[in-house]
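ok so heres the complex, two chains, lmk if somethin looks off
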Amino acid sequence: MPEDDAEEQKPGRISRAVHAAAGPAVRGQERLAAHPPPGPFRPGFWRSPIRGPWLTAVFGLVLLFGITTLMVTGLLSYAAYDPDVDPVNDLTPDKGILGFYLFDWPTRPYWLYRLLQGVHVTLGIVLVPVLLAKLWSVIPKLFTWPPARSAAQALERLSLLLLVGGVIFEFVTGIMNIQLWYAFPGSFYRLHLYGAWVFIGAFVAHVILKTPRMLSALRSRSLRAELRTDTAHTVPEPPDPDGLVAADPAAPTMSRRGALALVGTGSLVLLATTAGQSIGGAWRETALLAPRGREPGSGPNGFQINKTAAYVGITPEQIGPAWRLRLSGGPAEQTLSREDLLAMPLSTHALPIACVEGWSTDDQDWTGVPLLRLAELAGVPRPSAVLVQSVQTGGPFTATVLAGNQVRDLRSLLALRVNGADLSADHGYPARVIVPAAPGVHNTKWVGRLTFRT
Amino acid sequence: MARFRRWYGASPLHLLALAGCFALAAYAAIRLFDYEPLRVAIWFVGAAVVHDLVLYPLYSVGDRTTQEAASAVSRGPAAPGVNYVRFPACLSLLLLLVWLPEILRVVVDTFDRSTGLDGSIFLPRWLLITACLFAASAGVWGLRNLRRLRRRQHRL
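and the predicted structre for the whole thing:
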């Protein structure tokens, strides 16, 4: 296979011995190869008897599907912010062609974003042990000696820095963000999006170059036979051209079956202690370690709060009796009190809140005025978009532009009540937006002004 | 073609795939490094370096120490019981690695104030899960030994 050329030129143990025996005839590079620095650069340093192409290929196969799913759900989640609809929505205005796939985000099915982001975050967490295992399985290659025997190998190793640096960077920023630890430099959205694109290039190249090797390694052993082999009967894989198999293997302390069980159990434990925050209902309590494994309260307003009113600095005056909703964009600005809004024909729809952090609420019964009715009242009967502004001052997402399809969906509400009760301050009293299938931060709370566009 | 291979060391497809990878990476990296380039670079390269040269050696040494301790206890070269320690220890450390900011309360103020939830529950929960993992492992070990013992008694 031509893809393996770079690998085939690397010295196996036998060829290394031959080169060393060739005496004065060896070229400089070969002399270098024959004298690796001590420690991890020596092939005898790596002694795990189960490390080898087959085990690497099994982890690689899981990651091939898993990371592809993360990529697709991640890019779709970015599209869900509708960055092309208005600069207000665009958290990465310098994205250039990296936003080529953007489209107006649909409102159907209403649970779309909930599913998408739940899968993205939960799967990312579940893949952590698989990723660690994959990196463990190939770590001897980091210390390949000589560092490069050809231009091809040098370039490929550089691409591996992008691959490994990229994947860890993405996992670390994602896992920190869902725990609200914003210690990384700058906006999460920029880092996670551009970091993803650096990684994606390296990932695609790696898949192109390594898939044939992965398939041949998978075919080299039977999974069923491995799952029946205990530690006592575990033998190393035959020597491989990639140098993964130990030159001087230690006695086995764990079978390949055991290693797969350990990684699989790790994924299962993470799944069991995380998924509940996205599934909701009675399952929420099972998310023992996920950030949103409990409800913040009980009663109609007892569901998850992204940011509390106190945290973002909402004052009682801003949302007290003096609060007014301003409707603009039409011939004349309209001003409405909460009583005026409650006197209008109200609709009730069951919709969830789903956060980019992966957690979501169950469907809540929101009661309010459809945004389209407010557009008609403002004198813009066929709105192409609406700018929603919160009375919240400062902080991200205090203003959002909803696309035409979102405004025109009759389930998109300016909600006044939830589950039969008035909204609580933390859920956006006096009025908040709720839009089917939109990311949570587009459901603006404490709305002060709606500007409809024709 | 043969000359290209001799010069480059692999097929043209190899070079094409990597050229595509670097072009896309460069295009994205210009944007990634637009703000605080040094810190972003430290994070990006540091991610790989910390894993390969800190995390990996740490867990390898930890594992080797566990094995040596186990074989010292069993006074033999092979310690069949070592995996009953390895399994729960690995799982517990994995949970700590993923949920470290929560468990160690790195962002105590931000978390509690912004979510309205109590962030102090994660450390006791993690400790409890760790205890359960070790207890479950000990239970499996005990059951297996009991079964082995019974089988031996049957034979006698």
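quick notes: Chain A has a mean pLDDT of 93. thats all i got rn
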